[in-house]
Amino acid sequence: MTLTAAPRATGSAAWAEALLLSFAQAGYTLAEPAILQPADPFLDLSGEDIRKSLYLTTDAGGEELCLRPDLTIPVARDYLASSNAGQPAGFSYLGPVFRYRGGRPSEFLQAGIESFGRLDRPAADAEMLALALEATAAFGLTEVEIRTGDVALFIALIDALDLYPVWRRRLIKDFNRKISLEQDLERLTLATGSTRNEYEGVLAALAGSDRKAALALVTDLMSIAGTTNVGGRSVSEIADRFLEQSTLKGGALPRDALDLIKRFLAISGDPDDSIARLRALATDAKLDLTAAIDAFESRVGFMAARGINTGSTRFSTSFGRGLDYYTGFEFELHARGSGVEPLVAGGRYDGLMTQLGAKTPIPAVGFSVWVETLTQLVGKPAASGIGGSAS
Fold it and tell me: Could you tell me how far CA 279 lies from the centroid of its own chain?
């Protein structure tokens, strides 16, 4: 695909309009979701931490609303409410989003693409990366750094290790939060080999086989003791927290499993080399990671077929983007030597659609373009050659 060159002497809106035209030429229909959105989906899917960044209000019926902080969730909600829900469909968007950013403008433009319903996941992933590269090229940036990862590989590893459910949930949830994941692993390291209280072992074992039964047991014991609520929390909430903390205290993770997680998270570099190291780790540890590694390898093949120089693409098993709803491929494009903020960022989020109300899972992948960041770089001399280019 060849993009129409954008005008160089205009502001961000003109650049963004040219970008939107290129998305239309690629076959993506313009989506225009409402600016005012229900707040719950953002809070539920991004966590309460996002609340401090939202611009919130409440309507006469008591529903909490917000100015949209991004466009992925609003576009997905509109798709699910349409007659095409569940069918393959692709959308582009361009519009203002609103988020407190500490000293920077709280209203800024965001453009992007969302692709729903495609079952050819590796090919769809590669298409998103190719289109993202073309988007940066449309702004005159032909030298970019490509950073990629795949949370599906980490999930496959954790599932193969057969951990207690509480640790499975915690590690997968914290994967996209590097500091939290590092704290989990440090906590596990300290817990391994430590002396456990007897009740911790019992509860950990019970939670490992039947969390609901363990929760019911703790709740009943607290009710018998006459506990009603503490600090505004109900008995069930207290019991749930107690059960989780008891299991976490117990460690509940063999030393060899912890070592394997650390070995896995140390793999990075060239995608082909990373694939070989992942297969070697799986063979050495006798873990079945074949399906996840095969999907990764297939994606790399589709990337190469689209003209992307995969040898200059940096892959890391520990790469994450800080959002809970990613389920597979994740990527960011950065201007070389320009700081930590991405120019384009996105990935696969197959789990989001059911969380938003879809009755059956719907594959989904997409990316957002940070128009403001790109516009600030326009006019700087572009280096010759492309770190990764799309045909």
Answer: 24
Number of domains in the chain: 2
Check residue 335 and give its pLDDT: 87
Strand order through the sheet with 64-67: 36-38, 64-67, 56-58
Place of tokens 């912890």: 258
Cα–Cα distance for residue pair 258/327, rounded to 1 Å: 22
Q: Are residues 24 and 108 in the same domain?
A: yes
Determine the residue type at 110.
Answer: Q
Q: pLDDT by residue (tens digit) across 313-343?
A: 999 998 887 667 788 999 999 988 766 789 9
* pTM reported for the whole predicted model: 0.78
Give the angle subtended at the CA of 324 by the CAs of 355 and 277, to the nearest 5°: 125
In terms of Cα–Cα distance, which of 153, 118, 385, 179 is closest to 292? 153
Distance CA 42, CA 37 (A): 9
Separation between Cα atoms, residue 214 and residue 240, nearest integer Å: 9
* Reported confidence tier of residue 152, pLDDT bands at 50, 70, 90: very high
Q: Which of 233, 253, 273 is the last residue of a domain?
A: 253
Final residue of a domain: which of 223, 253, 283?
A: 253
Q: Which residues of 280-305 are buried (b: 16+ CB within 10 A; e: fewer)?
A: ebbeebebebeebbebbbbbbebbbe
